[in-house]
Amino acid sequence: MNPNTTASMTAAIRATATAVAAPGTEIIATEPLWGPESIEGHFEGYLSAAAVLDRLATLDTPYDALVMAGFGEPGREGAQELLDVPVLDITECAAQMAMLLGHAYGVVTTLDRAVPQIRDRLLTAGLLQRCAAVRGTGLGVLELEEDPDRTVRVITHTAREVVRDGAEVVCLGCGGMAGLQEKVEAALGVPVVDGVAAAVKFAEAVIELGLTTSTARSFAPPRPKAIGAWPLSVHLGAGRDGRGGGTVGLSSRVETSDN
User: Fold this and answer.
1) Distance of alpha carbon 200 from alpha carbon 193, whole angstroms
2) Residue 48 near residue 17 (C-beta atoms within 8 A)
3) pLDDT per residue as tens digits for the range 113-155
4) 11 phi and psi, to 5 degrees?
5) How many CB atoms lie within 10 A of CB 41?
6) pLDDT per residue as tens digits for the range 59-99
7) Is residue 231 reached through a cis peptide bond, with omega within 30 degrees of 0 on the bond before it?
8) Residues 6 or more apart whose Cβ sits within 8 Å of residue 135
9) Which of 19, 67, 162, 186 makes a 20 to 30 Å CA pair with 83?
10) Mean pLDDT for the stretch of residues 215-225
C-alpha cells in the first residue's frame, strides 16, 4: 500500500516488489482514492492513514498479506485491526532485516523534518536502540523522481555520513526510493536495505509459515459502532470495488498462486 496518491511511485514500488517476489507470488499495487500526493510531516501522515484505511475498507480484491509502503507514517496498527491477513510495514521490515546483517544500522530519508517521525516510529517498534543515525537528504518525496542520477548521488552522500555515524547497514527511508538499493550499495560498499523488498520477503515467509496478526489483545478487530460517513470513498462515489471518484493510488498486495 503506497500511502500517497502519486501513481508513478505506485508503479516503482510495484516494480521493486515484483523483482524480488518468489515464483508464484503475485504483486498488486494500489493507492488511496484521496489524500496527499506526498507525505512530508505529521499532518499529511495522519490524512494518509485515514485515506489508506478507507481504501482498505472498500477494496474487494482478495489478498494474503498487506505491505504498507510508507516509511515512518502512522496507520499500520489500524490496518492490523481492520484486516484478517498479515500487515507488514516497510519501516519495521527494513530495520529488522538490517539488524540481521550488522550490529548497527542507519536510515537515509528525504527531508530533515521526517527524521523525528522516523525515530519515533522506530522507538515505538522497539528498534531504535541499534539505529546509529537517521539523516535526511534534503530531497522532497516528489523530487526523488525528477533526476534519478542526482537522487542516487545525494542518497549515497548522505549514506556515507550515516556510515561515519557508526552504521554498518543502511536502510532507504522512503517508499519512493524503491529500486535504488543496488546503485547506492555499489557506491557505498556496505549492505543497503530497501524496505519494500524486505517487507515482501517477510510477507512471503509469514504466509508460508501459516501465521497472521494476533487478535488476542492489541490488534483485536474494531468494536462494532456507528462511524459517520464511513467509508468516505463510498460517499464520494466510489463503490466497494474502489472504482468511482478520486484518483486511484497505491497499496501493495502479496498473494500466493495457491489462492
Assistant:
1) 12
2) no
3) 999 999 999 999 999 999 999 999 999 999 999 999 999 999 9
4) -65, -40
5) 15
6) 989 999 999 999 998 899 999 999 999 999 999 999 999 99
7) yes
8) 106, 107, 108, 109, 112, 115, 158, 161, 162, 165
9) 19
10) 95
Amino acid at 66: L
pLDDT in tens, 17-41: 999 999 999 999 999 999 999 999 9
What does the alpha-carbon distance between residue 101 and residue 92 come to, in Å, rounded to a whole number? 15
DSSP codes, the chain = --SS--HHHHHHHHHHHHHHSPTTEEEE--B-SSS-SS--SHHHHHHHHHHHHHHHHT--S--SEEEE--SS-S-HHHHHHH-SS-EEEHHHHHHHHHHTT-S-EEEEESSTTHHHHHHHHHHHTT-GGGEEEEEE-S--TGGGGT-HHHHHHHHHHHHHHHHHTT-SEEEE--GGGTT-HHHHHHHH-S-EEEHHHHHHHHHHHHHHTT-----SSTTPPPPP---TT-SHHHHTT--TTS-SSS--B--EEEEETT-
What is the strand order of the sheet 87-89 is part of? 25-28, 252-256, 65-68, 87-89
